[in-house]
Queue: 2 jobs
Job 1
Amino acid sequence: MRLPHRSSGAPPSRQGGHVDVLTSRTVADEPAFHRSTDRRGRYSGQPEFCRYCRLAAAESKCAPRSPRQRRPVRAGRVVRVRTGRRAVVPGTVVPAPAEDGALGPGDEARLRAMLRQLIQSVKERVTGAPSLQCAKEVLLRLEETDANFHNYELVRYLRQHICSTLGPMIEEEMEKCASEKNQGEEPGYDTVVQCVLARVQESAQYKDMMHSLKGVMTAMVGCMSSGFEEQEEEEEETQRPERQRKAHREKGSRHCTDSCSDSDSSFSQSYKFCPGKLQLIVDQLDPRQPKEVRHEALQMLCSAPPSDILGCENGASLCQRLTAALSDPDPVLSDRILKFYAQAFILLPLHMTNEIYTSLAKYLELYFLSRESHIPTLSAGVDVNNPDVTRLLKKVRLLSEYQKEAPSFWIRHPEKYMEEIVESTLSLLSAEHAPGPLLSPKILDPICFFALVDTKAVWFKKWTHAYYSRTTVLKLLEKKYKSLIIAAVQQCIQYLELCETSKADLILGHSKHCGDKQKTLYYSGQEVQYIYFIHSLCLLGRLLIYTQGRKLFPIKLKNRHDSVSLTDLVVLFIRLIYYSPSHPDTTPDVDSEDYSPASMVTEILQILCDQKECAMECLYSSTVISTLLQPIHNLMKGNEAAPHCSETALIHAAGVLARIASAEEGLALLLYGEDMSPSEEDSLTGAHVTAQFTKRLLEGEVPGLAGSALLPAVQRAFVSLCCQMCGTCEGLQALLPYSLHEAVAQARRKASLPSEGIPTPVLGSHSVSSVSQGSQNIFSMAWEESLLDDLLNFAATPKGLLLLHRAGVINDCVTFMSNQYAENLQVSRQKKVGYGVLVTQVASTAAGAAVLRDSGFVSALVAGLWSSLECGGEDTMVNHPRPTPVEPIDRSCQKSFLALVSLLSSPAGYELLGLQDLPNRAEYSLHELPTCVTDIIDRLIILNSEAKIHSLFNYEQSHIFGLRLLSVMCCDLDLLLLLEAQYQVSRVLLRAQEENISEVSGSHRGFIIDGLSVERNHVLVRMNLIGGPLERTVPPRTLDKGENPYPWPMFSSYPLPHCYRSKATRNPDIKQDADLSQLLSCFMISDKQTEWVENCQRQFCTAMKSKGHVISGGALGELLEKFVLHLTEIPAECYFPSVEYTAADADVRSESLSSVQQLGVRMAISYGKFLNLLNDGAESDLALVLKHCERFLKQQQAPVKSSLFCLQGAYAGHDWFVSSLFLMLSGDGERTLRFLLRFSRLLASALLWLPRLHLSRYLPADTVASGIHPAYFCSAHCTEMLLKTEVPLVYSAFHMSGFAPSQICLQWITQCFWNYLDWIEICHYIATCVFLGPDYQVYICIAIFKHLQQEILQHTQTQDLQVFLKEEALRGFRVSDHFEYMEMLERNYRPALLRDMRAIREQAA
């Protein structure tokens, strides 16, 4: 067999030692080599230390040191050069015989004696060579095949001579190589060797030394060749007795030398093993031969590569002889055979190692089944120091190590080889003794010994990892070796029964001994059973992961009537968590290897939770959940959780429940039970039980855990579990009655007290009290940070954010999040909520935006943006130049851009920009960085001076970036009005367009078409035109191909070109809506008020589904007037009390509107005139209506002291709902005001008319102080909750994008879908919510998301979902087309939604 060259990898390191059979660790020197494979799995021939050879060389006293071992070259170390095949090897520096490198006068005599010694040592090998070429090959490979090569005097002398001659030069060359590595990539070991070798060989010193050595050696060989034979005979007679005695002493301890080679052929070692000589070795291995003869035969056998031996015709008979010799009582003989087997496993291909493995496995199977074997019994235990047990464990471990290595290469060979290995292994593991006499001791089975050397069943994990081998393993387990699974289950049951009968104290320390390096190598019967139990536990846990493995259940056990199903097995595992003994003073440590049943079962169950199909079959059942919660039930009743149940077990159980709750199906099971019925009241579900238990833990009302040292750890585990569930809309909705946010906030306040009250330590004081106090401070800080991290889960939902405001911890939570963000640390350990979702939710409220600003989050975000946009990357060495960005927002700035888009919603925009003037300085330093959003607007958007332009390194790219950001901000109409009112953005852009005109010839004006002018034109149209997808045309940002690349007209003054407006037609008159006559007739009030409301709603739905496209806004306005008039006369339908309003027009006209309201009025009037709905004078009428509304609502407001901009007086934005009604009622101010006064009593007004509840006294005081509107914490919250169930792909897309659907919903609702829907659809939206109920506001949002599903998924991939949803209109969406779907949503969700909406006045409870 030809062996390839050794690959040029890194040199192997020294390891080794005899075997600890339990932990598979080594504790003494023991060299061995192992072949390695390249990335394609091919044999590279590189030697490494392997487990097989460590096993075979175990207990050896004089394992030879291989000459091929190398250590890496370190800086400052002398490296010696060896001539011939080895280039550079490290060693010990020895003084040279001469300073100048020349040979001294007495050196020739010494060399002659040394040369004679070398020749005599290799005489036998050379003379036995069949040819001269083979003899030369023996000499050339002498270093590799002779263990004493480096002990020869000649070799040592030559090493000293080379070191003294070339050592200084090599040191100098090594220093040069070390200094050169700073100029490029660091060279590897072989690169340095080749570099130094090439320079040394080219040097004059090397040539002179070689010339001198060659001349001296040639002269000495000539002198010795004449009288060598006579002198040799004389010395032979005098030295023969001494050599015989020496050989006799070394005979028993000599080990075979390494036969690995990096030459091109293995012929030099295998030429002696012709078929005749191999047959002689086979005969000499006969058990009837003397021990010395068999030892000599094995010595000859180990001196050649196994491939050259087993590949011969006598290979099969040789395997039989070797297998038979394994039972020989001589330990040396058995160890040498195992050594040969280990080398065979390393060097041979699978089709040959397969035969060796199966023969060894069959031998062990017969050995265990033989009653004459020396197998220990269960009662006697396993004494590794026993020679018989040691030999048996070596054989078992050799197979075990090969089992772990085989899966890495058997896929490259025919399947039959893998099948033979698998079947022989399963046959061996399934072997068991036939039942003996009644009182006879139980003999240990093979699986017990394999458990000793592979406690966690790594072999089974590797065999089932790939489908290629997993199919074979599971098929054989099902058809022939199911007894192996039955025995594993039986072992787990027996251990549980032992724990339940309170005998677990006997095995309490077994998990400690597993993996203990200092453990005495003796295992009692109980420890062996425990190790076998751990092995069975790991095997069964791995089996449950796969579908075919789960199909093996249910199984029938011996002496048991009932079968064991999958659920029974999982329940068994859970009971092991609670009933198995554990060490009560320790918490689970993820960094240490833990063999305790509780930790191992927890790991298994968490892995099962990660596999959806597996979790559905095994874990998601009421039986499993009730078993997990049973000890918690007991503790809440004041009983003991379970016998021997410790706090550690509760921590493990909380970890399993947290992993279950991380999946949608698992969370639903915990919240609603197995039948998914949230209305079940007679029995609490898992979520309610854990919430009650957690609250009692925090309040110290669990007597069973009082005074426990691990109580804080238990609290932390269950608080994380509950807060994780509260991080979802449905979880928060279910657990809201328990007020967990208050309990956790109170615990956090208590945790912060010790850190504030600790006195300052005195210098030189080392008292115990100060140390313990410092430890307590550290613990309190860690506990406080953990609670803040858990509370941040609430911020992932709109209603949870409101709860954080009410608990008074929103500032601390957001500050903690900002600190984590600054340190690039993850938040929310369990659920992994991203910063994007949290920032989006927090920025959707004014109070949240203020905390983001005060905590430094906004400044850090702005600084990161400026660094990416203007400063570029860090000043490091660039191997490849950065590509020039083509897009204005390239990948380096994309993340910062999206973060700003999510941050700048209208509530956050008013809080961050309200009453903030632009710096507009005369000079800007290049080193001056922006720190707030106002600086971004000043430096990137409103570039109205040369100083601002010159302060930018990338003017065009940065300005386009700012214009893109402005475009998204202007999609929020309230934010657009604020920018116009404070900074006159349109005027700045128009002036910039004016300056971009190239020439003026008569009436012709030519604009320069570039990136900036196209972007400004796009933004100006978007800012100055209101309309839906069919009512306005926004010019694109791209150029067309052809002669006219940009056909859209640019402008630098008003009015806008007409091409951006679609052709508008007057809406059809109500007389044209003949089908509405039946609807109008039903508005006659009836005695049965409930029936009247239902009849009106039914007629409206019929009209919308059949003739929705012909129902005009004017007709709907008339219908709304009559419906609201009659509805307010029904006391049950009125949510707010009646408020008398008697202000006259003359009194109100003198009042003034804010600049934002005035701009909004002009915008609304412009839109109404475009729709042909308004006449001249409508602007003053709308302004009067707004003034009346402001005074009317002010009567119902409560005074609030707050620093928030949005709470300083009247509603900050424009009243888009009033403007919409004004247009629907054709600009009639009196009708509009009369309708609003009546409508204000209905629940729908709270969610459709946002200024209605601004600073309202009908809301709880803490809700008003938070500045969070019910449209956000109620409507948007419910939209998120339904979206997760109804359109799960869209919900997942939002979270993948780091964006929250609640923010865009709030923007749609705030501006009544202006700019997103056409006017007729806006009217349909308002009418639908008034007629059918405010919950239809949620259903319409869900229908929109379902309509946009494909676009949302597409823009999630392109990573611009936020920009798409804010900039793009809702094209193709018609409210009437989705009525059937919304009616289905009403049937499923109306009771829960209306209950939540009606509770906005009692949310404080």
Job 2
Amino acid sequence: MSGIEKDTESLTEIAKRNQNFLRKYQSAAPTLTKSRSKSALMKVTPDISIDSTSLQFIISNIDIDEPFNQYDKIDDLITKLKHKEALNKIPFTVLDEFVKKVRKIIPKYSIIEYTKNYKSEAKALIKILEPSKTYLNLISTKIVDQRLIVDELLEKILKTTQSALDKLIIPLAHYPNKENFKILESKKIKRCMASLCGVIEYFSTLISKKCFQEYLVISLAELLIKTLFAEGAEILHLTCSYALASIVHSYNKMTVQVINEIINNLLVLTNDPNLAIGTKSKKVHCREYTVAEGVEIKFSTFMVISVLQNFSSLSEALRLDGKVNLKLVNKQIQETLGLSQHFVNEVCERAFKVKSESQEYRTFLDCFILDLLKLIFRPEFPLAFQVLNLVIIKIFGALKAFSAIIRHYAIDEMSLIASSLKQTIHEIKKLPIVPQNITKVSMTNHPSDNLMASLCICKEGWSDEKCDMIQCEECWKWFHLDCVGLNLEKYSDNTWFCDDCRLFQYLQHISIQEVNFNEDEIFALPLEIISVSIQFQRVYQELIINYLISNGGRMEESSRSLWLAHWLSEKEDQNLVHLWQTPSKSPNLPRLSEKGTIKLLRQYLLAFDLGLTYLHTQHRIISLLTAAQPLTRAKAIKSLSAIVSADPECLLEDIIEAAVTERLNDTSIAVREATVELIGKFITYKSEFSDSYFIALMERLTDKGPSVRRRVIRILKDIISNDPENERRIGIYCEVIKRINDDSEGIRDAVVCLFEEVWFSAKTEKFFVSFLQTIKVLKIKEPIIMLFKAILEKDQKYKGALERITQTATEQLIASNLLGNSILCAKLIEIVSMTAPELLVDQITTLHQFLTASQSTPEESELLTSICIVIGQSSEHLNSLNVAKIKRIENQLITLVYTQSSSVVTQAINALCKIVRLCSRNHSIITSLITKCFTLLKGQAKIISNDKNNLSSVFRALLALGLCIKYYESSIYNEFSLEEGVDFKTSIFDVYQKFSLMEDESIRERALDSLSLTWVRFPELIIKSDSLIKKAWQVANTANKKIKLLQMFYEFMRHCNEAIKEGSDEDKGNVVSVIFGYLDNILECTKNEKPDVRESAAEVLKLIFIQGTINASKFVSVLFSMLGDESLIVREAAYFCVEKGFIKSPDLITINMQSSLKEAFEFQSKILKQRDLKESYYSKVYGLIKGKKSVRNKMLNTILHSLEPNDPDFTEYLCEMISLFVYSTMEEICLILQYINGKIQASAFRLLRIIKVRKNNKETLKRDYIIECVLQIQLIILKNHLILAYQIKSFDEIQDKPVQKNEEATLFQEEYEEFKCYNKIQEIKDDDLIKFKYKFKQCLKSQNLEDGPMKKRTRKQTEGEVTTKQIISI
């Protein structure tokens, strides 16, 4: 209710407060009484006597022969009279006098010679343009005396304007250099362009009245377009754009020509003479056009939309009787969209070509799409969202382009559009327009009193910088004046309501119907918002039109016509027809603010048109996640990431969650990395995200791609940093620690950085608790030891942190009454001792008291083992301890040897040997222990077979004796004898041999196991043990037995190198011969079905190879099989041997290559029972040897000559192997392709066509007719794969030039899997093959499939050829 209609006495408290609040911003103004204010609104006849006298006086003073500079005053007076609608009150004689003088002045100055003397030419033009501008202003009035319009004069002015643009402005402003810029900045040129602006402005009014012949308008349009694309003519751009829009509006037939001219000139926008030739950093050089505050677009976009939009008109569809011709309305909208389609098609077709100039069009299209996204929710630009839809359709088409550049560009644009729409959808979900629900806030006297009350629609509240706010009378919320479109100078209402409250009050009286939805309908917005939008659809439409009419402006008519035509084309509505006819806004409807209207329009469009657009775009992006090309899938994931960035909650949608989870297992590393990055950005956004994605993310820690693993570790680090008390943190620590032994240095560094920040930079108590919990869950200590060593290697300052937690652990160990906690503390100290033993010297005096056993339980044994390890590791730093303490520790350790289990005995003897050797030097302790063990074994050897009561003592003595010999220095045994007249080694072997020959299997195994401990110190004993070992291999019928034997050899090979050096050459030769005797047993284990056995055998072979005791050529075929093993340990060991062998002998890998291939194939098919070579190291080996040309060619030749289509399984295996190789020169590929060409009898192209038919229509060819195709299919796909992957055009000539692998390379594997799944390959030989070939040729003829690639033909193609082309393009 306005203040004119409501007395100030009846004002509410809020209204009074609003007035008081605004008064400090307003200047004082005289207050009108109520009656006087009403009279002020009455329409009266304007007083024009003063203006008329002034106009008459100035016109009479115009002297044709003298310069006249008061045209601006005449122009202002005419404009003033036009606004008063009183120009027709001026006597005709006055106006006629002016026209007559202008008719004489213009011809007088119209002869201008354009000689590039720009300033003088501008001066001469001003003399013509100034009177011309005034004259055009006069005759552009709605109602004008026709006698004032002189066609000859109009044509003269038009030609002068065209000459000025063509010969002065365009040459100066097109690609202006420094000199031209200086000229353009001069006063005369600027004044000339200002005059041109006025002339063109008035021309646009006359053009809309169709005052000119079409040929004149065509030439003007061409010049206007050139001016619009002239960088230095920015002053003229807006006027020229409006004039061009008027031309399109009035001369519809010229629209296509205008659009084509615009398209042809688009390249000018991206041309920068200062850029280097061929540069890719292109951008649109164009001024910004301000649509509204904070909304700027490129002027080129405004020009295009303005021209296209002005094709539509309200008046065209109005009949003489005032009714609307709905057929014309529909025709008009279709033609407008057709022109828009033409523009979009032309731009996109040029942008989606792989040519250098296409980059310019893509640059323009980038900006164009960005600008459309800014305009789609502006009521003044109804064509924007429809043009955007047309662009999206073309982008969808570009996804099928052959060029990866175009496909990726299309995906980027889709991503941009989808993310922008998703962002808007997210905002609407948070703050929808739901007219039935108005949320009130607490009443406040000032916006600073309550933050929620002052939260404006701009999402900002009260601030000192932006403090001009007004309070809504209904909901009591505060709003910024700018945001609700209030002008202080024009504000007069005593009460004010916000947009939501206005709608609420109005819609309370509107009857609505319930909306029903189908279950299968999908919407971009929640159903509640969709329902409201449908219920109030008509009201929303009226509000949009109301805003346009109230706002006015140049684009009001075309905007209104397009909105109404769009709505009428969907449903005939008399209310919409009325809105077409009416020239004024509806008085019953509230006028919403600009931001309120935009908010309403956003919700309206996303509930209907743009909501479906978003859903289609999202569907396309998700469908691209299963594209054949890895780079395309990676691009699609990044596009999906952009959508998720706009609204992270969409990650919980079923379709997106399923798509993202699936891509975590993608075959491409790039795709998996992009997916991990996507999850990592938002996994901490909501707890639900962690539940959905955490497990899948953790699985990627073992990904074969280093970049993926590194990305996962960074994400996990962010999770812990953001939430140090995260419930999953211990699980994260355990999994990340395992990556410390990763083969990638970058991964290891990432692990170190994580724990350096999370553990070592934290407080001691937090570090201790996390460390303890990690030990409890992890259960293995090696990764933690490697981690701590890496951290200390990086910075020694962290020793202090380790020392502090060790001290804390010791205190906890003493104080704890729970054995479980004591074990964990002991494990912690054990890990520190193996990392930095010097830190434990002070703790040993406390820890050794725990060496006393009391319970004899497995848990206590575990505790004792850890303490023994700690003492053994710290022994070299215990010299500072007194003799008594050392003695006490020695006695405690000996007691453990006599009383505890084998695990404790092993560590106790190890610690005891170190203490004696490094501290006490009391060798008698060790010799005494050896003597006691030997005596016991000597005495029990005769009776143990009959009496097994002392079996445990015998086992302990066997183990202790072997451990003492292994861990203590050999120098004490030189003069030490266990039996008179028998040397020490012989005595030891004899006693072990007696137990190794006993019938009891457990005794034999224990004896041989303990005997193997002595090999480390006395390698010659392995020669004496030959018969015992052979017997053990013979009875090793289980995996565990074989692993135990392999571990014996591993321990021996790992420690015996130094011992062999100390012995004679004869001993060394004997040891080598013994190892060689067991090589067959070890090699046999590499083909065992159990991975553990193969891994143990691989480790032994690796040690044998390192020591160089046996020539690697003896087992090269086994190594070749191991390269394809499913176990990473086996593959790494095999590659290590091949790599070292290649350095010594480059021909190593090609020795007996053919038999190696067969053996590897047999291993894959019979042992591994699969042929997947993706994880194999064959490509790695090829990369190693391809630098040696002769070796490389020998390897390729051997593989190629082994290809035999009649042995399809082996051929399949070899083809897959070749496909995994990474080639770097054309020679390699040509070698393969030339061989394949001679091998396949039917042409590859023909067979590929048949494959296409078979894949898409299984009934086209019978199974019998495709057998040969299936037999040779590996060769065909391999050849096609190589050609596509390395972009080979001709391979007739072998040229040694580099090639680059493109993304099509991975297509081979995917196609290959399809064929394997579809068809079981069968073998056809002899007569059956001959019969088949005949049938096959007949089939080819019937299918009209010709030999060789398709070539351009001059004759008309047959129906069969057309069908073939369609098949190929599938």
